[in-house]
Automatic annotation (TrEMBL):
PANTHER family registered for this protein in UniProt: ESTERASE ESTD
Keywords for the protein's UniProt record, in alphabetical order: Hydrolase, Membrane, Transmembrane, Transmembrane helix
Coiled coil segments of this chain: none
Protein name (record): Prolyl oligopeptidase family serine peptidase
Cited Pfam families: Peptidase_S9 (PF00326)
Transmembrane segments: 306-326, 346-364, 384-401, 422-441
PROSITE patterns reported in the protein's UniProt record: PRO_ENDOPEP_SER
Every Peptidase S9 prolyl oligopeptidase catalytic domain range: 87-246
Origin organism lineage: Bacteria, Bacillati, Actinomycetota, Actinomycetes, Streptosporangiales
């Protein structure tokens, strides 16, 4: 901890009585009746309090008492989380900070980063003990819509265009959410924001690649004003990223230093609003940069649901897999049979290759696509791996047609067992065509 600040270790109870631990930072000998602020993390399981130490130090040096705490890991994971639960954790921290020496309990508020931008308004709408809220990189959109945009923005910044970013990426997220592996995908923050009565300071970096910085602030303002709250100030910081840290390359790299003027604004704004000097409907700073807009992400139709995707995979497993398995058994029994068409082998092997390769690559893209996209070598705005999968998909479709025509010509001479094997293979090939179209493998 910096030598110019005093650190006090504290414990409090979060949602469900969970024991939580944190640190209060303040200037030694600070005057009594000072404001306090609790910092709420962005996404991440069990994120340590030190993750927000940079912000806490700067805010404390501006005269605030700042509580940072270790984020819960119990009941929170990549696939399971509750913003309501996190909001109750934050309120437990507020209650603790209100009891600390020198703090005016009527001047304690909340600061939330990214995911905290969904959590903090919930907490504020539940408690009059929250005096104000500060939101950084916050979203007024549903989490699934925000996440698909963030990954697409990262890919576009890496130079990707075409079906991978336009179709495959959002459709993978649709299936993930429908399969229950994306927590709170359709949470609508607007009603909660409209229920916030406290003064709001909203901060966005001009080069935010995780929150759509052009779309979000107007939606926030609309929701606040729908609830009758016009005590909000929105500030955009040039050369800043999602967390309002400095970025030298348009949001890809985050430096440790905060955007110039950010900490000063938080310190002065909190002091003003807690002294009754409210600001009304202000938006300041340069226009944010947003190369593309979000797209609605609604619950899927039955044919694009997670179940439908699983059924398609089972069809591929049986249809494409039976062909080589039967061939192997025949070879072991020394009863091999000349294939109806050599193209059948391409349908089987290529179909498997496309299905496994497409999902493998898409999951890789999703894991690296947000902010630091790494699509691999590119050609004309298309990742080489994706182009190879597309070419193989086209080859599989043509091979399916060729195999079907060959079987039709030789149908009378094909043994019954071979007919079953070819029927399964062609069933897989028939399902493969709409599947590949849906995922953009047959589109530019």
């Amino acid at each position: 901890m910096p030598a110019d600040l005093k650190a006090t270790e504290v414990s409090f109870r979060g949602s469900g009585g969970l024991a939580m631990h944190g640190t209060v930072l303040a200037q030694p000998g600070a005057k009594a009746g000072r404001p306090g602020i609790v910092l709420v993390h962005g996404a991440g399981t069990g994120t340590p309090r030190t993750q927000l130490l940079g912000e806490a130090v700067e805010f404390a040096r501006r005269g605030l008492s700042v509580l940072i705490y270790d984020k819960r890991s119990e009941g929170y994971s990549l696939f399971n989380r509750s913003y309501s639960q996190l909001a109750d954790d934050a309120l437990g921290a507020v209650a603790k900070l209100r009891t600390q020496p020198g703090i005016d309990p009527a001047k304690v508020g909340l600061w939330g980063l990214s995911e905290g931008g969904w959590v903090v308004p919930i907490a504020a709408s539940r408690s009059t003990e929250v005096a104000f809220i500060v939101l950084v990189g916050a979203n007024a959109l549903a989490p699934l819509r925000q996440q698909t945009w963030a990954v697409a923005a990262g890919l576009r910044k890496a130079g990707v265009s075409g079906s991978l970013v336009e179709r495959a990426e959002p459709r993978l997220y649709t299936a993930i959410a429908d399969g229950g592996m994306f927590p709170e995908p359709y949470y609508d923050p607007a009603p909660t924001i409209a229920a916030v009565r406290q003064p709001v300071l909203g901060i966005w970096g001009v080069h935010d690649l995780l929150t759509p910085p052009k779309e979000t602030p107007p939606l926030f303002a609309k929701a606040l004003e729908a609830g009758g709250n016009r005590h909000y100030t929105f500030q955009f910081f040039p050369g800043a990223d999602h967390a309002a840290h400095q970025t030298p390359d348009g949001g890809v790299t985050r430096l440790k230093t905060l955007a110039p003027g950010y900490a000063d604004l938080v310190g002065s704004w909190v002091k003003d609003v807690t002294d009754g000097k409210l600001r009304t409907a202000q938006t300041n700073g340069p226009a944010p940069v947003q190369a593309s807009f979000t797209v609605p992400m609604d619950p899927p139709a039955w044919w694009e649901s997670a179940l439908a995707q699983v059924v398609a995979l089972l069809v591929f497993l049986v249809g494409f897999g039976a062909y080589p398995v039967v061939a192997l058994v025949r070879r072991l029994r020394r009863a091999s049979l000349a294939p109806v068409s050599r193209a059948a082998r391409l349908v089987s092997a290529g179909g498997f290759g496309v299905v496994l390769g497409a999902f493998g690559y898409l999951f890789y893209v999703v894991m690296t696509g947000g902010k630091l996209a790494a699509p691999g070598p590119m050609v004309a705005g298309h990742p080489v791996i994706w182009v190879a999968l597309q070419l193989l998909a086209v080859a599989c479709v043509l091979a399916t047609v060729r195999t079907a025509l060959a079987w039709r010509r030789r149908r009378a001479s094909v043994p019954g067992g071979e007919r079953v094997r070819l029927g399964l293979l062609l069933a897989g090939g028939a399902v493969f065509v709409p599947w590949a179209l849906y995922w953009g493998l047959l589109l530019p």
